[in-house]
Specification:
By secondary structure, the protein is an alpha+beta fold. The protein has two domains: 72 residues, lambda repressor-like DNA-binding domains (434 Repressor (Amino-terminal Domain)); 105 residues, Jelly Rolls, CATH 2.60.120.10. The protein is 23% helix and 25% strand. It has six helices and ten strands. A seven-stranded mixed sheet has the order 1-2-3-4-10-5-8. Strand 2 and strand 3 form a beta hairpin. Helix 3 packs across helix 4.
Length: 215
């Protein structure tokens, strides 16, 4: 029987090759230089270059900032041509995703995203999110915000949630929803990974860009 670790390792990770390639391709398609993108996001050109070459993993805040600036959906980072016999159940019109076949992104701040939709959805980000011990959506003391509204359900572990000026700790079975334009941060201060299901709706609205970018 496969262990949890080996099951995760077998999932379709797109960070090492596809994520850098897709970010770079979209930036070039829009004819934005590395220096200009870095200026818009208030990070160094070196940080953008390292992400686009796969030498560095972005934090949640930085990835949100990049895809928002480039007008991309998170699904665009995961999506690829499944083809016949792919991860989706063909007989059900490509609506099922098996747990062992989810595409995943591992981010620099101890956060792992796994896409729960079989095909790209431009309006909704539907994710299974794991916060490793010490993992967080942004560095300590730095909050992020972006367009949309978020809905989360904690499945296991403990997750510290800061929204605006309030901080609460959530455990299994707890849920929350909030306006994503409100500065927020999610962090695991416990001694075991925290897992959750997360939905973000309307991330492509005209609300302010992400704040608190981490390099």
């Amino acid at each position: 029987m496969a262990t949890e670790g080996s099951a995760k390792a077998s999932r379709h990770g797109v960070m090492d090759d596809e994520l850098p390639r897709r970010l770079r391709a979209e930036r070039e398609r829009r004819r934005i230089s590395v220096r200009e993108l870095a200026r818009r996001l208030d990070v160094t050109p070196s940080a953008i270059s390292q992400i686009e070459t796969g030498r560095a993993r972005p934090s949640v805040a930085t990835l949100f900032a990049i895809v928002t600036e480039l007008g991309m959906s998170l699904d665009a980072l995961f999506d690829h041509d499944v083809g016949g016999g792919g991860r989706a159940e063909q007989g059900l019109g490509r609506v099922i995703v098996r747990e062992s076949e989810r595409e995943a992104l591992d981010l620099s701040t101890g956060v792992r995203w796994e896409r729960l939709t079989a095909d790209a959805d431009p309006d909704v980000d539907f994710l299974y999110v794991t916060y490793d011990v010490g993992g967080a959506s942004s560095p300590p003391g730095r909050l992020m915000r972006h367009a949309g509204r978020e809905y989360g359900l904690i499945l296991s572990g403990r997750l510290e949630v800061t929204v605006g000026f309030e901080t609460r700790e959530l455990g299994p079975g707890d849920s929350l929803s909030f306006d994503s334009t409100t500065p927020h941060r999610l962090a695991n201060r416990g001694d075991e990974p925290a897992t959750s299901v997360w939905v973000v709706i309307g991330r492509h609205g005209s609300d302010p860009r992400t704040e608190g970018f981490a390099q």
